[in-house]
Predict the structure of Pilus assembly protein TadE.
Amino acid sequence: MTLPLLIAVTIGLVWLLAVGAAQVRAVDAARETARAVARGDAVDTAVARGERVAPPGSDVSVRDDGTEVTAVVAGRVGGPGGLFDLPFARVSAEAVAAEEETPP
């Protein structure tokens, strides 16, 4: 009886680590995307770069108001082996970068 409980706890802890790692990847993807657009890269190129860094299946969007660029990344985290595929296991991140002036 103890062994199944220990296995369930271990799987739960691994899933929590996966959620934490996915959150870090979402933050990195948002920051990378916002910086790329602020540097003057094309939005499509920057979003593609963010999607490579973000957790699989995440959505990456960019808003540019002319002075600041805001990148938002949102996605779901599936559990190990699909055991803990909970609908509320979502990660999201937002990053803001100031537009960089291009030299003349």
About this structure: The beta strands are 59-64, 68-76, 90-98.
